[in-house]
Specification:
Blueprint: H1 16-23, H2 33-44, H3 46-49, H4 56-72, E1 78-81, E2 87-92, E3 97-101, E4 107-112
Helix pairs in contact: 2-4
Length: 113
Amino acid sequence: MFGPSNNRGAGNAFSRDTIIKSATALKKGGETVVGHALQKHAGRNPDIWGKVKGGPDQINQSAKKHLEGIIDAPGDFVKVTNDRGITFLEKKLPDGRGVRLNQDGTFKGFIDQ
């Protein structure tokens, strides 16, 4: 089970499967939610994410590997509240990659520093 490091109770615990299933949901054109997120971030920061190559299947696989690498890396998710008062769960790695989740553990998007 995953959960934010500053969470005292188990009420906000979520599973790795929740993250992966929500991230790999298909969108139009054969692209997954996480594949689309990788395309956006790799376009802005190719030094962090690498260059995106290939068709939807290859991009989706690459994006899933990035996601799994981030969630399986040492470290915890932490609660972060944005300037509009919306709370998310985030995990950032020293290499600049990170992931943001909704409070229910579903994938919101990649983040980079």
